[in-house]
Design goal:
The complex is a heterodimer. In chain A, 38% of the residues lie in helices and 15% in strands. Chain A is α/β, with parallel strands linked by helices. Chain A starts with 16 loop residues before the first helix and ends in a 5-residue tail after the last helix. Chain B has helices at residues 9-27, 42-55, 110-119, 166-169; strands spanning 2-7, 33-38, 64-67, 98-106, 127-136, 148-153, 160-164, 173-178. Chain B is globular. Classes of the chains: A alpha/beta, B alpha/beta. Chain A binds chain B through residues 2-4, 26, 28-29, 32-33, 36-44, 46, 71, 301-302, 304-309, and chain B through 68, 70-73, 76-78, 81-88, 93, 117-118, 120-123.
């Protein structure tokens, strides 16, 4: 098995356990490359990749761009703020215009759920979803699992709690799919207003008490409160949120076990997680960022190898 | 499909000793030299040669690495299959060193071309030599020749040379396979 079962990376939902294993193994090799003095391989010399971002992003975009450049691909960047999208151009037209300049792969972030899937049906290039609304963010889930695997030796059988704004989170959904696919047990925890209705249908349990959730888990993934996606008040105040669902040192010390702390970033320090926890030895937040480049190199390499000449 | 023995276990042993002696002749105490086996199949030969040099010829602590060339190959996207990588284990810089690249079969020379590129990521070597167990003459695509060769073989393109090691296939032997 050395080939992905898909032509696009639209979501974890469309992958199978073998795909995940292949991506992780390939990422191991790229991680070794990233540790070298010269962190670059020439594999994708004849591939051009467009990063199309209709939504703000620093880390993901930077991570993708670095991954592409370290594979020697040619890279063009495009952000909606400075584009003809503002003049009323449709998504398909925008992308087809870019593709007519001989682009082989499109990495796209878009505020609408399913934008990547829609695009994959209408254009020729390989599509990588870098986040579509509150739907999926597959590379984030992959790097999260990869980081857990690195720290704890594996994902199967582990207990993971995802804390915070589950309702608006594409990271949560992709993580639930990825973790369950590898045999981990997942629970979610957060204010009732930020837990989607019928989330149990995905096979996850809801915890309303953070301490109980932490006591149960091996890994806690603390999500950011996404103020920009909130069209109404979901909780009374930031302070109240931090008191009930924020992770602090005292709470962490009161547990009778050691847990691993993750955060997809950017961190609202003092809201979902305090600085002393985010910067502690329990936290693998910066490992996640580091692994992000290796994971994205693996995904791009494996997808690019399926693009026929 | 027919299969012919090119080298037996005994012959391989003799050849390994000869190659080790030839390396010794040129590198003496290996103080400025490193051995690098090409993954996946060159690694067996490289490990054997190192063992031989250290045990039989008392050379001490030869810097040793394994190099994977998958990401440097020139046939990415040209075949049907995705190229699967092996691991690279080189925990030193080759800057200024005398590198000996080790592979089992030299055929078109394209793997060696990729290895030369890959090696650049680990510094600027003083010199690079090539050692192969089997040299398939007359089938080169590139101007690359071995400095140390075990056995020269004239095989047509339809034929395959298969090198077996005790470590992976249970016996030391080299076969010529033709359809």
């Amino acid at each position: 098995m050395s080939e992905l079962s898909v032509r696009h990376l639209l979501g974890i939902k469309y992958l199978n356990p073998k795909d995940l294993e292949l991506i992780f193994q390939t990422a191991d090799h790229f991680k070794e490359v990233l540790g070298r003095a010269i962190k670059k391989v020439p594999s994708l010399r004849d591939i051009t990749i467009a990063n199309i971002f209709f939504e703000n992003s620093t880390r993901t975009r930077l991570s993708f761009e670095l991954a592409e450049k370290r594979l020697s691909a040619d890279v063009v960047n495009f952000s909606a703020a400075q584009s003809s999208v503002r003049k009323g151009e449709t998504l398909i037209d925008t992308v087809n215009n870019i593709l007519s300049m001989k682009v082989d792969m499109v990495v796209m972030r878009h505020p609408n759920p399913g934008a990547g899937i829609f695009l994959s049906r209408h254009v020729q290039a390989a599509i990588v979803n870098a986040g579509d609304g509150a739907h999926e963010h597959p590379t984030q889930a992959l790097l999260d699992s990869y980081s857990i695997r690195e720290r704890l030796g594996g994902v199967g059988g582990k207990k993971v709690v995802i804390v915070g704004d589950i309702l608006h989170s594409r990271v949560a959904l992709s993580n639930i799919f990825a973790l369950q696919m590898q045999g981990a047990e997942v629970r979610v925890c957060g204010p009732k207003t930020l837990i989607p209705k019928h989330v149990e249908s995905l096979g996850v349990k809801v915890e309303s008490n953070l301490r109980d959730a932490l006591q149960w888990c091996d890994v806690a993934n603390m999500l950011r409160v996404q103020n920009e996606r909130m069209d109404m008040s979901y909780f009374p105040s930031t302070r109240e949120y931090a008191r009930q669902f924020g992770l602090n040192k005292a709470l962490l010390d009161s547990l009778d076990k050691e847990i691993v702390i993750m955060h997809p970033g950017p961190i609202n320090r003092g809201v979902e997680i305090t600085s002393d926890v985010a910067d502690s030895d329990h936290s693998i937040i910066l490992n996640q960022v580091e692994n992000g480049v290796a994971i994205r190199m693996a995904v791009i390499y494996l997808l690019a190898s399926k693009i026929k000449q | 499909m027919s299969q012919k023995v090119l080298l037996s276990a005994k012959e391989i042993e003799i050849i390994l000793h000869r190659l080790a002696c030839q390396l010794l002749e040129n590198h003496l105490d290996f103080s400025e030299s490193v051995l690098i086996g090409l993954q996946p199949r060159g690694s067996f030969l490289a490990v054997r040669l190192r063992e031989l040099l250290e045990k039989e010829y008392k050379v001490r602590k030869i810097p040793f690495g394994l190099l994977d060339i998958t990401f440097y190959r020139d046939d990415f996207r040209r075949g049907d299959k995705t190229l699967a990588a092996s691991s690279t284990q080189i925990d030193f810089l080759v800057e200024g060193k005398r590198v000996v690249l080790i592979d089992d079969v030299l055929y078109t020379g394209r793997s060696i071309r990729a290895a030369l590129t890959a090696l650049q990521s680990f510094g600027r070597p003083g010199s690079i030599e090539l050692l192969t167990l089997i040299d398939r003459r007359f089938s080169r695509h590139l101007p690359i020749q071995p400095d140390y060769r075990g056995r020269q073989v004239d095989a047509i393109n339809a034929e395959k040379v298969r090198v077996c090691w005790k470590e992976n296939e249970g016996e030391d032997a080299v076969y010529l396979i033709s359809n």
